[in-house]
Amino acid sequence: MSRRPLSTSPSPRPAKRAKLDHLTPDDFKNGVFLAPMVRSGALPTRLFALKHGATLVWGPEIIDKAILHSKREVDPATGVISYNGVSRAIFSTHPVEKPYLIYQIGSADPDLAVQAAKTVMEDVSGIDLNCGCPKPFSTHAGMGAALLTDPDLLCSILTALRREMPSHITVTAKIRLLPSQQDTLNLVERIVNTGISALTVHCRTRSMREKDKAVIERLREIVDFVEGMGKGIAVVENGDCLGWEDAKRVRAVTGAHSVMIARGAESNPSCFSSTPLKDVETTLVPAYLRLSNYLQNHWSLTKFCVNQFKGVRVDVTKADSHAMHQALSHSKGYSDVKDIMGLSSGEEEFNQILKAIEDNPPRERRMILDAGVLPSKLERNEPQVTVTPEGTQNPEPPGFGAPFQPNDLGRILTTIPGRDATTPTPGGGLSLASL
Ligand SMILES: Cc1cc2nc3c(=O)[nH]c(=O)nc-3n(C[C@H](O)[C@H](O)[C@H](O)COP(=O)(O)O)c2cc1C
């Protein structure tokens, strides 16, 4: 595929300036966020998520060293900014997502984390530290979930980021639960004291896999604890939330200030809407292909993402869906999927996204719940009855005051067979050589 010439000059199509040009701790409250996802959290997915209601979007984890020697280049035609390594694009973004974009770092070194953050800070609004990846490539180097058992290192990275980053760049962290609730609270206290703006808690322990139900009932006490610290920090729930409607259930159960969605958005990036797209084969897929082609998203990445899309089918038959996936699996580039893409242009698709963001600015989208849905610790007497949508992976809203996991939960869970949780790959980049 031929690439347009690159320039280092600013984009000709800058994002319309938001009223406030930086995030505040309040921007992490009452929102529904796109989770960091290597591969699946590509630029077109983030833009569709924003178009369809996501409040903030996290980029895929990128290991600190991977971005350090990259060259920042801007495509003058589209405005896409690429951080290119020797042979691959390490990270791509567009100015339109900057006001809502959190860049996630994988690191086990405060200096490298700061250098990585400084490399990208002109194009992002916040820096997040991954403290939850359980894969050996990450943990053996002391990164990801390994940080959970090295709180001194974890907090020194966050402290360094907060100290060295300009104040308009937020610093946040994403952790998993520890097997013991008390250990989790102790860790959370230290993390919140580093000066972060928000804390995401993936409600699984390091040894739990995706197929294990997230233990979201443990979050309520953590939320109360953080609120009790009086710093106004948002606690973001992550784990088994399927979309906008389901986020209400998750917030009612957990008291979390916001909810972050990964696999629900991987299947359908419009899940952030109260009316997510149905028949994704005819609605989302063609539009996604057109946009990706326009933005010159690497074909293999686009193909991977499109293959994950699935949703409620109304007019599309199983046979139609199968035929489309067959056509996709045999295609080697955008020119092979022209029939699926249709006649509209990718630029039109992009302009629709710009308009949707302009008409309904993501940071102003707020999930304000009815009074009483999020009772404080003192007000809470009766269990809330919450509605669980069909197909949710976490079907029974746990009763409040459900017993916490025993201290030896980690030991028990390590004996459960199952595949490893989906995990970031270092860099998350793509080979430019193969373009
Ligand atoms: C394809 C994929 C890639 C992921 N990559 C990352 C990542 O880069 N950083 C991270 O912190 N978590 C990553 N995760 C974990 C998710 O952010 C999230 O914590 C987890 O999937 C639980 O949320 P869910 O139940 O909504 O899927 C990834 C998950 C998936 C499915």
Automatic annotation (TrEMBL):
Which superkingdom is the protein from? Eukaryota
Q: Which Pfam families match?
A: Dus
Q: Where is the DUS-like FMN-binding domain?
A: 34-313
Please list the reactions this protein catalyses.
Answer: a 5,6-dihydrouridine in mRNA + NADP(+) = a uridine in mRNA + NADPH + H(+); a 5,6-dihydrouridine in mRNA + NAD(+) = a uridine in mRNA + NADH + H(+)
Per the UniProt entry, what is one GO biological process? mRNA processing
What molecular function terms (GO) are annotated for this protein?
A: flavin adenine dinucleotide binding; tRNA dihydrouridine synthase activity
Sequence ranges of Gly residues compositional bias:
426-435
Known InterPro entries for this protein? Aldolase_TIM (IPR013785), DUS-like_FMN-bd (IPR035587), tRNA-DUS-like (IPR052582), tRNA_hU_synthase_CS (IPR018517)
How is this protein named in the record? DUS-like FMN-binding domain-containing protein
Annotated source species: Galerina marginata (strain CBS 339.88)
